[in-house]
């Protein structure tokens, strides 16, 4: 499956952005979808994940209450609404997909498919 992110950009602290990830697969609905991010010099880290039915979502503690993950299976798209952005949210954000739900949703190794990433920069 091919994943294409969009929606990144430059925003001031306290602002909002909405990232989108469009998937090429018609079977998109069977995939658990997630967002990860990677800041310069740091490892890629988990941000948020949603089950195929969107009835189960998980968030990193650092974004809980500020970010919301959602999906529209009819459009093969997953979103990440980011509010109250902070400079420390600056990173390249990646969309990821997996079929095997027995693995740890927060580990990069659990995901077989990745997008190319979109840059989010939050200025202070």
Shape: globular
Oligomer: single chain
Helix content: under 10%
Helix/strand/pairing class, anyone? mainly beta
Spans of at least 5 consecutive residues with low confidence: none
Radius of gyration, in angstroms, nearest whole number: 13 Å
- CA-CA gap between termini: 37 Å
Percent range for β-strand residues: over 45%
* Pattern of helices and strands: EEEEEEEEEEE
Largest sheet: 7 strands, mixed
DSSP, total strands: 11
Walk me through this protein's architecture:
By secondary structure, the chain is mostly beta strands. 0% of the residues lie in helices and 48% in strands. It is built from no helices and eleven strands. It has strands spanning 3-6, 9-12, 17-23, 32-38, 45-50, 57-59, 67-72, 77-82, 91-98, 113-114, 118-123. The strands form two sheets. Strands 2, 4, 5, 6, 9, 10 and 11 form a seven-stranded mixed beta sheet that branches. A four-stranded antiparallel beta sheet has the order 1-3-8-7, with no helix packed on it. Strand 7 and strand 8 (77-82) form a beta hairpin. It starts with a strand and ends with a strand.
């Amino acid at each position: 499956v091919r994943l294409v992110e969009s929606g990144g950009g430059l925003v001031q602290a306290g602002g909002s952005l909405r990232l989108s990830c469009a998937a090429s697969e018609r079977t998109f609905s069977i995939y658990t979808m997630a967002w990860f991010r990677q800041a310069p010099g740091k490892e890629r880290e988990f941000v948020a994940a949603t089950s195929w039915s969107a009835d189960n979502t998980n968030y990193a503690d650092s974004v809980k209450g500020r970010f919301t993950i959602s999906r529209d299976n009819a459009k093969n798209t997953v979103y990440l609404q980011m509010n109250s952005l902070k400079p420390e949210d600056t990173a390249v954000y990646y969309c990821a997909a997996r079929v095997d739900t027995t693995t740890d949703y927060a580990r990069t190794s659990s995901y077989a498919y990745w997008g190319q990433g979109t840059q989010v920069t939050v200025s202070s």
